[in-house]
Amino acid sequence: MKILKLTSESKTDLLNTLLKRSPNNYGQFESAVSDIVSNVRERGDEAIFEYTKRFDKCEIDASNVRVTKEEIEEAYQKVDEKLVNVMKRAADNIRIFHEKQLHNSWIDMKDDGTMLGQKITPIGLSGVYVPGGKAAYPSSVLMNVLPAKVASVKRIIMTTPPDADGKVYAGTLVAADIAGVDEIYKIGGAQAIAAMAFGTECVPKVDKITGPGNIYVALAKKACFGYVSIDSIAGPSEILVIADETANPLYVASDLLSQAEHDEMASAILITTSEALAKEVSVQADRLAEELSRTEIIKKSLDNYGYILLADTMEDAIDAANEIASEHLEILTANPYEIMTKINNAGAIFLGEYSSEPLGDYFAGPNHILPTNGTAKFFSPLNVDDFMKKTSIISYSKEALSKVHEDIELFAQSEGLTAHANSIKVRFEQ
Amino acid sequence: MKILKLTSESKTDLLNTLLKRSPNNYGQFESAVSDIVSNVRERGDEAIFEYTKRFDKCEIDASNVRVTKEEIEEAYQKVDEKLVNVMKRAADNIRIFHEKQLHNSWIDMKDDGTMLGQKITPIGLSGVYVPGGKAAYPSSVLMNVLPAKVASVKRIIMTTPPDADGKVYAGTLVAADIAGVDEIYKIGGAQAIAAMAFGTECVPKVDKITGPGNIYVALAKKACFGYVSIDSIAGPSEILVIADETANPLYVASDLLSQAEHDEMASAILITTSEALAKEVSVQADRLAEELSRTEIIKKSLDNYGYILLADTMEDAIDAANEIASEHLEILTANPYEIMTKINNAGAIFLGEYSSEPLGDYFAGPNHILPTNGTAKFFSPLNVDDFMKKTSIISYSKEALSKVHEDIELFAQSEGLTAHANSIKVRFEQ
């Protein structure tokens, strides 16, 4: 891995390089996606089945688009029982962590009869997209579905592309069953997103679409935003490690590679104040890259988006981390908690030497669907609030309104909205 | 106003009619907006100043694009002191209501050294768009800025178009000053949204853009979503009143008209179980439409999107209200609180005969920036959470990780992610 000095130039270069990976920059696919979306919106099932034949080489129709109970039972036969049990334990942890995020509706009351509050209710129907083929990750199914389940969303559907034989990856089906998905449809790509956004004869219109996907899926989600709610638009995976001389270089190198293996656009960055650590991590990372199974992906990812940055001070390292706003941030220093208090922008923070990033991907409970590409500056990990919405509650008594009715009338008049003023005034004229 | 029977047909017709007003349906403006956005992204200030000359007939440059302290002082001279005080009282109420929405960061701890939680922090920089001309509403300035202020957002900027003389509406400046805006830029339209999304020489890049605007502004916000966070895409205003025979027809008619006056696309709907009330409201609404100042707008809005629906039962009325998911919902019945418990989808609920909708627009404290066009099924009123983001915290001890490391390794292996598995494994090999 390359070692650079952390300067304002190297930081700017790095930020510009990372931002190039944003799914927002793939405008050239927009018109293809827009065609698919309008076609599904207008022609419904017919369009979906055509695209499935074209893109997935699979003939489906209304009679077999839904995964059956028998197919789910078959899937359980194909998955190692030990793994099924691990999935169940992971699901328990995810459920417990997300239950702690639940908020009650609340109401504030005053003596004069004023009641103001927020009613907090789940959305009615959520839709999860799960990629097929090599990108079918059962862990992602758990992470997408369980927050909706904890939010008490009444109906949760899933779409995922079938293979040429019309089958769905067994691990996806088992994870969906463990998480409590109600219906699974064998549809993939932009056509699946459009189906869920607008509804078709077979697929119900949902309120929110979540889940990862390729560039077509990401752009279809953006195109449908507003008709439905979506989670953030996911870019390639990222890890940033802040470490000092106390960190174990083998752990740091291993953790960097755990994200580099995701894909060639993934980014792995170490920022350290220790030159000795920088050199040792570089050596270990290069060695591990050769030993692990996804060597080609790891090497390309490290070449393009892997950095070891040597910082003069820990303050500089922290400032850079806040600017990069990484999806995953590990803090491997003598005082990780103190540094955490200074981190404002990150998807998830992993503290200390026994909190390696895959712990969060699979098991600890916090969601692994995290803001990427600097969007941790304004987006959050997928969470229960994403599946709930608020309604304001406003209730005034005659006494309460009579004290302020002239203020409201004056304000409305000043904006030229006389019918607004009138609606208050009529209550005090009779 | 027309009176119809509430049936599944009339409901479907109404829903389809209302949805036609969605800003999502104005694809024909998309390429114009996309040109403006890319031009500002590439050419920065130069592009902004050109568009301001073209669209606002106003020559601005780097020396005068920012509103000065003197201009704000002048604005105070132009606004009635009584109105300034009303704005301040409204601001206090808005601040108090939004302070009740603040959530603490939290952490959950276990004996074995596990610590899991959420760090909740404000975004760094928020940008508010304020329309110019007739659509400059000081109340909207307060509603957009104060939640960000309560969230402790460090820097809040505003953009608003200048008139041909390079001036900004005085009421906007006073409201911005009361709410605590840090900088105001004289830029409007899609070019202002692009400037805030990407930053230019003069305008800083923000993390989140909120605020209403015309179709160009709405589409520019959607185009920039992902580069920045945005609030929901606002459509025309809506009111739905559920009333029974106990409701005062003058109040109902006045409240319907208070939204109808917003613009010709605004929608005003009464659903009632009382035929007598339906008839009386229809008469009163038509009479008031003639008397109030914005007669032409009100008549067109009522003709196109005004409905009085006669329901067989209160249950039917409630079901329809949940399907329509109105921006504003008034409940004027003998038992408004009981009905409220059955309402899942609405931006804001106004209860009882002294909670007319303009109370919420101007004064009570809850936000008046609300989801429109059925999006209350999944979007929320603007609130403090919109200006905060979450970061997951994950900290395991050696003891805690050693109990589960084999589970994680197995799960990672099953997904073919060997570098993930390795990053856990190396911690238990030495």
UniProtKB/TrEMBL annotation, chains A, B:
One of its GO terms (cellular component) is cytosol. Gene3D superfamilies: 1.20.5.1300, Nitrogenase molybdenum iron protein domain. The keyword Zinc applies. Substrate binds at residues 237, 259, 262, 328, 361, 415, 420. The keyword DNA repair does not apply. GO terms for molecular function: histidinol dehydrogenase activity; NAD binding; zinc ion binding. GO terms for biological process: L-histidine biosynthetic process. The active site is at residues 327-328. Its cofactor is Zn(2+). InterPro entries: Ald_DH/histidinol_DH, Histidinol_DH_CS, Histidinol_DH_monofunct, Hstdl_DH. Catalyzes the sequential NAD-dependent oxidations of L-histidinol to L-histidinaldehyde and then to L-histidine. Belongs to the histidinol dehydrogenase family. HAMAP family: HisD. This is Histidinol dehydrogenase. It comes from Kineothrix alysoides.
